Amino acid sequence: xxxxxxxxxxxxxxxxxxxxxxxxxxxxxxxxxxxxxxxxxxxxxxxxxxxxxxxxxxxxxxxxxxxxxxxxxxxxxxxxxxxxxxxxxxxxxxxxxxxxxxxxxxxxxxxxxxxxxxxxxxxxxxxxxxxxxxxxxxxxxxxxxxxxxxxxxxxxxxxxxxxxxxxxxxxxxxxxxxxxxxxxxxxxxxxxxxxxxxxxxxxxxxxxxxxxxxxxxxxxxxxxxxxxxxxxxxxxxxxxxxxxxxxxxxxxxxxxxxxxxxxxxxxxxxxxxxxxxxxxxxxxxxxxxxxxxxxxxxxxxxxxxxxxxxxxxxxxxxxxxxxxxxxxxxxxxxxxxxxxxxxxxxxxxxxxxxxxxxxxxxxxxxxxxxxxxxxxxxxxxxxxxxxxxxxxxxxxxxxxxxxxxxxxxxxxxxxxxxxxxxxxxxxxxxxxxxxxxxxxxxxxxxxxxxxxxxxxxxxxxxxxxxxxxxxxxxxxxxxxxxxxxxxxxxxxxxxxxxxxxxxxxxxxxxxxxxxxxxxxxxxxxxxxxxxxxxx
Amino acid sequence: xxxxxxxxxxxxxxxxxxxxxxxxxxxxxxxxxxxxxxxxxxxxxxxxxxxxxxxxxxxxxxxxxxxxxxxxxxxxxxxxxxxxxxxxxxxxxxxxxxxxxxxxxxxxxxxxxxxxxxxxxxxxxxxxxxxxxxxxxxxxxxxxxxxxxxxxxxxxxxxxxxxxxxxxxxxxxxxxxxxxxxxxxxxxxxxxxxxxxxxxxxxxxxxxxxxxxxxx
Amino acid sequence: xxxxxxxxxxxxxxxxxxxxxxxxxxxxxxxxxxxxxxxxxxxxxxxxxxxxxxxxxxxxxxxxxxxxxxxxxxxxxxxxxxxxxxxxxxxxxxxxxxxxxxxxxxxxxxxxxxxxxxxxxxxxxxxxxxxxxxxxxxxxxxxxxxxxxxxxxxxxxxxxxxxxxxxxxxxxxxxxxxxxxxxxxxxxxxxxxxxxxxxxxxxxxxxxxxxxxxxxxxxxxxxxxxxxxxxxxxxxxxxxxxxxxxxxxxxxxxxxxxxxxxxxxxxxxx
Lengths: 535, 216, 270
Prior knowledge:
A: Rossmann fold; 25 helices; 50% helix; C: Rossmann fold; three-stranded parallel beta sheet; disordered C terminus; LUD_dom (chain B); NagB/RpiA_transferase-like (chain B); FTHF_cligase-like_sf (chain B); L-lactate dehydrogenase complex protein LldG (chain B)
């Protein structure tokens, strides 16, 4: 693809744009809703799901905590099985390795299996620059590539496109890249899939070199695994003469048997199926079957930096199922592009800042805040990555990085310092509440009352507008709980209770005809003697 | 320093907090206990039901009925050549008595060109393992199963799974496989969910999967 | 007699004292003489969730001192209970102060209100009366961080006169998220509007939840939309009884009637 995430604005701004696109909102709500239901169904039928998640977590932890040993073992196993192992510190090194292999085979094209690692390193751009076409063969990747678009989901990169848009792209672009779509193409998914089948088949049959990623790489045996649905993966993994797999170093599993846990967790979490249509495993070169030249590029590209953070390293357990995206209420509304990375959604919000490092780019630093910390992501994660925990941890890293870099504290720094100072003492807190209560008393006269009689303020100018543009603000209670407790001895001294406290009950909850009359609350604020406990 | 050395060194430094003990002692992995209360028949029935869930065709067969059932599976299909008998790919080691008479047999082998595979109307194969829980067939590309491309390129795959090859769940299947061999796990016909996350059967792999469970 | 401390939370203290009063009323009715340790302030969650873990350290210390000597802490907020249970450890660890780490480890257990009622007191029928159509929003931290499960629903179902209506998409976040509501205001509002829409489709008169923070957000939207749906903290419903139909001056002096509920009684009164 020629698109790039470079220049994506910080999350709140990117999200604002996305939220204005009602078509996008509809596409996302429909797609994520569908997949959530499917996942819940197939996960629900596994009694031991929680035990499986724990096993998945443990297997990945075992690997990560002993990664160097497992990487060396993987290298030995691969070499013994006839594969050539390459190591790449970063994207540039990895891309150079792949370009070099393609050039040695004098080809001007490669077919590609969908792979997050190759997206991350922008391999296609590097190949294009070397005069080599990289044909994406996954249907969604094809849609993104033909549409000169960016992926917006880990599993379904074109999730932001609906069938009508996909038809348009196919009709317009397929002819420029090979076999054209039939003129009478409709937007029926079956027809769209058939058009992709016809378009790509000639490429599969003639390609000499294929590039893939791997879902898992078994240290014990050197077995690589690709989990897929369409068969494009099988085409790429078996028809060309040369296969190059770019594999993140965190993809290692200790033993072949460990595939059992992963192959149970991944499909149910990912596509909401008991099993995905096709899973291929290969161990180096198989004489007489499939590519006879097999390369594996082990890619770091920031992963060892993630590994160095004991809290953050759990992000490397990720098996790219995208369940966290599908349940994320933020992702559902903003889509993936707003995250400015090939890794969108909750996992992206913790992985991207760690891979890139925080403190140098406002877009990256905005990602740990792109979450309401609702915890739905952790609940569905098949390898139990505590995403909210890492988000909070990374927010701390962002703040620290800024404090170290800046000579003067930010407005937010000062606000937090002030709040910390006030709230670390009950005396100061009480005084602040009284001041707020007095302000509330004044504000109540300006406000109206919400159902239930609570006085609220409408839209406000200035910094409060972020809240109040769409949400009424409750006015601080004139008498805080702590003042009430002190004045009434926790409600025990009844004589001190004022009648005014109850006058608010004059108002009715159920009365829907009532909108903004202010009987209950203004009378209440006027009657109550909030300052009585002044010490 | 080589990239290899640099990465390994960096990873070692990153893990300074991890005690130097055997990985298996450092982190215990506890798998769910295998479910054992299903009978053989129940396991095979479940397999049939779950394969069918993927909109594959599933039939029970005995070794003597297989050949008629294969013939029935092929009946009505148009030869891609336009006329003449169907061209059916048959891997080495596939029981010859299961191949119907009225087809043109293409014997698979390393020398058969990919373009030749693409001209086949269908492929017959056996399997290595069936998984009841997930409705999955695993090929290890041994006798009767052909190389990986054989069961991929033609548009119809008729697959014979012996009832005694069916295991209850994924862990038993992984345990039964030889890691040195390549494997293809097949769960229904090729499919995609890439358009609005709606599942559509039939993209690049065989659009029709026809499974015969042989024996009881 | 075990010492039970009410952690009213800073938000309830300043903005929603009626919730605190309702907890006191409810617990006294159930025979628990709850204390209010006056030194308490805030659990530090706003700082932690904004990334200012160091600034949360004095608040964690203050929390430990304020509740020192209590056998249990009751919190009418899933979010703040979650903060005490799950974030104080994180703050202490990052502070590098082993004393603080030990302090957090040995702190009295913090129960969200419904956990205390159902698990410790063993009650689901708290003798409440609230004859209204109610729908319940399980706030994220109650639901997922604490795992309160169906405790709130069991308590609500036992309230006489109350009709509990299912909230579509109940488990989905309302979009409040503390600092998120302002830092990502547009997304927060988009989420909140969907939640408000679901609330309105139920036909409920009252939206109830265990966190006034989320209710401020959803309620702010419902109120701006002139929906006529009011929001109430769960404690206020559980504190409501039939006794409030008594004379108004009695009612006002009676801690049991403290709580903002029971609108029907005014109608009866009129």
